[in-house]
Amino acid sequence: MAERGVSRRELIRRRRREGFVGRRSELSVFREHMERSPEDEAADFFFHVRGPAGVGKTTLVRRWEAIAGEHGAATAYVGDSVADVVETMEAFSGQLARQGHGFKEFDKALATYRQRRHEAESAALAPAVDGAPAPEAARERPGPSPGSMLASQVGLAGLGLVPGAGPFVGAMDPTQLALGTDRVRTALAARFRNRDDAQLVASPLEVLTPLFVRAVGEAAQRAGRVVLFFDTYERTGTFLDVWLRDVLIEGRYGELPAGVMVVTAGQGRLSPAVWADHLDLVHELELQVFTEAEARQLLATRNIHDEQVIDVILHLSGRLPVLVHLLAESRPAAPEDVGDPSGTAVERFLCWENDPARRAAALACALPLELDEDICRRLTGEEGGAEVFGWLRTRPFVTDQSGRCRYHDVVRDAMVRLRRTQSPQQWQQQHTLLADTYAQRRRHEEQGEERTPRPRWQEQRWRENRLRETYHRLCAHPQRALPAALTETLHAYDHSTAALRRWAQILHRAGHDTDAPAPARYGQDFLDALDSGPDGLISMVTRLLASAGLDSDSRALAHALRGREHRHRADWEAALADYTTALGLAPHLAGAHVGRAWIHTCMGRYEEALAGFAHAIQLEPANADAYLRRGTTCISLQRYDDAVADFTRAIELDPEHVIARNNRGGLYMRMGRYEEAIVDYDRIIALAPRDSLARSSRGRVHARMGRFEEALADHAHAIELDPDSFLVYVNRSETYRYMDRGEEALADLDRVIELRPDYNWAYVNRGETYRRLGRYAEALADFDRAIERTSDSWAKVHRGRLYRLLGRYEDALADVTPPTGWAPTDAWRCYELAMVLRLLQRPGWEEELLRSDALHRGAPQGSFPSPTDASAGLFVVQCARQNWANAEQTLEVLLDSGPAEAHLREALGDMDEAVTVFDLPADPVRALRRRLRQALPA
Fold first, then answer.
1. For every residue of 236-252, which 3-state class applies, written as one string?
2. What is the pLDDT confidence band of residue 14, given thresholds at 50, 70 and 90?
3. Could you give the angle at the alpha carbon of 721 between the alpha carbons of 224 and 261, nearest 5°?
4. Distance from first CA to last CA of the chain, Å, rounded?
């Protein structure tokens, strides 16, 4: 017997359950695609619903969400409650987890990000980031900014995280990395600023989004489909557009399976600047107001047939679906039940309610931006509050999400307007009541804990309560509350630009709801400034300082924030002026002391910097950022033990401080404390499993320890995580060099140049590799190219060595002579100069050998890429000086450091050169050479 089909009664029940009039085709379209196989090429996967406010977009999207659920799909929904991409992913993760699709790896990484988000200002110090400059950036900036010299010392170069070649590396002039690190600093400093900058390298999105994409894909495999809904996209699209395109279309963060669908709903079309090349993939549906026939059909379902009643409803509603629903709700039997056409639809709706408590509740509960049962009780009275809240949740103009409700904007705007104009005194009283309620919730979050203001801002619930308190105080007394609200906005800005966007939106919303132009103007100006980047924010803070009437503490914070923006632009003088003004207004502002101290570091005024950091730490002993920056400043002063101590203190204050661990790990590696470096990199990898450069940096440490298989495994895994990370290939090329696998090192350096043609040091490294292989012409071409691009001082030293080997001694002399005075890291440059002077039979070579010996001995631990490099260089210099006893002692130190075979062969080669150039006696050389060869593997 044939299987019984669906009954007519069931079809009727389904149709009526939809509750839609004029939307059947939209429901059918979506249901049809849900019934298709995800692999069907004709099945759409990206829907965009657009139309004016009140046309029913949210209602349609919510019905689509139910249809998706009926078909077994996992679903998640966000509206305008999210302020950035990270919050969006977090909201989706939570909803899908409640459906049995946990995002454990993503959630863990997100928790780490939340904890260290206050480090955004320190991100410019992070060496273990793929911060490769783009070719376009290189052409736009022909030379390094003044601050990039400092950045190269305290960032990649200062921590030895960009490997060099041979004994020169420990003495590198920071100019060699200035161009690259300048752009690293700029990109990292901007990563929490706006959506465009967030798409650049070193954004948290680079870590979180691949984990999110993978988790969504796994959920789709399990459920068959995942449907992600983005409502109110006219508000969130400004920061979601590029990210969503990269995730859904471009596959930038990993491939999504066919079972992932996306629905966006907003008032306008998708941005052509972002989606123009992909509009053929978008199924767009435009919702209009009801036609007269559709409106009449809905009224008929409510048993409204009187023509006069219908005419009044059509006139009052403008056929806007949300208002047609509202006016039809009480089923008026006569025109007088609706009222005359001059009344608003909302007023008529409230008049239909016979219960005065419900009428009052509907108006009162429109005041909060979001409604829960407790807020409803406070507004309507404890007795009956639950019943009123339950009734409100069933109203067609209320959207209910897990016990939290929001009025439809069209209805809320009308009710708020009505409330404000009809009863100004009650308006103020109820907004004050709501502000006090949220203040009480905020204080509850603070109970029993000793916290500084900044950590409070890291807690989302505390921020949300503070945000709503600010909104209601502005609504109650716009002019009186504005200065305090602007101060709150500055604190939000200090926390993150996502928080600033929230506060700016609240200022604008409060100004709109109270018809107060000042808050609305400030809110819009901040939003415009956010979309304009650092220059826009500098201008905005300048206007705020000129016109807002802030108190001295708030003015100090504003100056500090403007100083921070100037710092991001490497405008040291302007930044210094702002920080100094801030401290003149508020000497207790620890963050301003840290900011000014860091500017002193950038300007090379290290002692002033150290004094500033010390003052900040005295004011705020738990300020991890102060320790991190002071430690980085200590690197510039070659006070490596002090730097390690400061990084360690930062880690004690925040055990998951990735940047501090990264910096300390790099220092440990340079100091030969390899096991400790491994511990730090292990912890970073545990905190951020997809951090490719941390894994590759651990590979460098393994290579220094002679664990080449582990090193290569780390590099391979890093490349798998990020095939386009140029520094990973640089690191692996160093490992290949230690293994005497020159051709493979060359292949990796070729890949580096392919990925980053403007990365100057790649040419120097490749030139050194060619030199070791005896391919001098190719080596010279690479050195020439590096020098032409940047006039790199240490590239000239490499070329000078090659000129010496080629017998071009005058050219060599020009290259190895320092352009200015000697630096503490010039130990090997002195040795090269001594060799050239000796070959030219000119005086001064003995003095240069003596200087090289002194510089080698005087360099603090950590000045060279490794203790092996330091010992090898000193050993060769002592041989050249015929200081045989010291040379023998230094050789034992070198051998005890566990050098790679390549290091030993390099030391042998350098000693043989010294024998020829300085005419060394055979016997002592023979004994040392024998000792070196004995240490080589059989």
1. HHHHHHHHHHHHHHHCC
2. low
3. 25
4. 85
Cα angle 373, 473, 266 (rounded to 5 degrees) comes to 65
Residue 422's CB is within 10 A of a number of other CB atoms, namely 11
pLDDT tens by residue, 807-857: 999 999 999 998 777 776 788 899 999 999 999 999 999 999 999 999 988
Q: What is the pLDDT of residues 380-426, one digit of tens each?
A: 876 777 888 888 887 767 877 767 888 877 778 878 888 888 889 99
Cα 364 versus chain centre, distance: 40
Residue 1, exposed/middle/buried by CB under 10 A (0-12, 13-18, 19+)?
exposed
Residues pairing with 229 in the sheet: 77, 263
Say which residues have a Cβ less than 8 Å from residue 820's Cβ, sequence separation at least 6. none
Whole-structure pTM value: 0.69
**Tokens 């629905």 sit on residue:** 263
As given in the structure block, the two tokens for residue 476 are 């109650």
The one-character DSSP state at 841 is T
At 179-233, the pLDDT tens digits run 333 333 333 333 333 333 333 234 578 888 999 999 999 999 999 999 999 998 9
Backbone angles phi, psi at 822, to 5 degrees: -70, 140
Q: Once rounded to an integer, what is the mean pLDDT over residues 96-115?
A: 82
H or E, element range at 285: strand 283-286
Supply the CATH classification number for the domain 8-118+202-286. 3.40.50.300
Does residue 185 contact residue 753 with C-beta atoms inside 8 Å? no
Burial class (CB in 10 A: 0-12, 13-18, 19+), 819: exposed
Q: Give Cα separations from 472 to 197, 436, 468, 506, 511 (angstroms).
A: 33, 9, 6, 10, 11
Residues in the chain: 938
Main-chain dihedrals φ then ψ at residue 131, nearest 5 degrees:
-105, 35
Q: Which of 375, 344, 350 is nearest to 471 (CA)?
A: 375
Give strand pairing partners of 284.
48
Q: Which of 44, 107, 99 is nearest to 73 (CA)?
A: 99
Give the architecture (CATH level 2) of 817-938: Alpha Horseshoe (1.25)
Q: Which helix (DSSP H) or strand (DSSP E) does residue 265 occupy?
A: strand 260-266
3-state secondary structure of 430: helix
Where in the chain are the domains? Answer: 8-118+202-286, 127-161+168-188, 292-352, 817-938
